[in-house]
Amino acid sequence: MSIKQMPGRVLISLLLSVTGLLSGCASHNENASLLAKKQAQNISQNLPIKSAGYTLVLAQSSGTTVKMTIISEAGYTNHADA
């Protein structure tokens, strides 16, 4: 799997888009869970994504949330929920 290069603004835009989709489109938990699963699968197909000193290495769904693991070049691991 090759590392995809993306500008920092694109990665932030992606994270905001996922958050917007999950909170704005689904009115029922079942729909939100399905949407979270699909978004996590879509993101996972493009991993790893390297941007602005960080690498997005994992995206998985948990209920209505997409959990993402981001590693910085400094060696720190961050977990983000969208």
Question: What features would you describe in this structure?
Answer:
The chain has 82 residues and is an alpha+beta fold. The protein has one domain (4-81). It contains two helices and five strands. The protein has helices at 8-24, 29-44; strands at 4-5, 49-51, 54-62, 65-72, 77-81. The protein has a five-stranded mixed sheet. The longest helix is centred in the first third of the chain and has 17 residues, at 8-24. It is elongated, with a radius of gyration of 13 Å. It starts with a strand and ends with a strand. The mean pLDDT is 71.
Topology:
Layout: E1 4-5, H1 8-24, H2 29-44, E2 49-51, E3 54-62, E4 65-72, E5 77-81
Parallel strand pairs: 1-2
Antiparallel strand pairs: 2-3, 3-4, 4-5
Helix pairs in contact: 1-2
How would you concisely characterize the structure shown here?
The protein is of the alpha+beta class and 82 residues long. Helix content is 40%, strand content 33%.
The major pleated sheet works out as:
5 strands, mixed
Residue stretches low in confidence (pLDDT < 50, at least 5 long) are: none
Multimeric state of these chains?
single chain
Portion of residues within helices: 40-55%
Keywords: Lipoprotein, Signal
Signal peptide: 1-28
Protein name: Type II secretion system lipoprotein
Organism: Escherichia coli
What attributes characterize this protein structure?
single chain, 2 helices, signal, 82 residues, alpha+beta, 5 strands, elongated
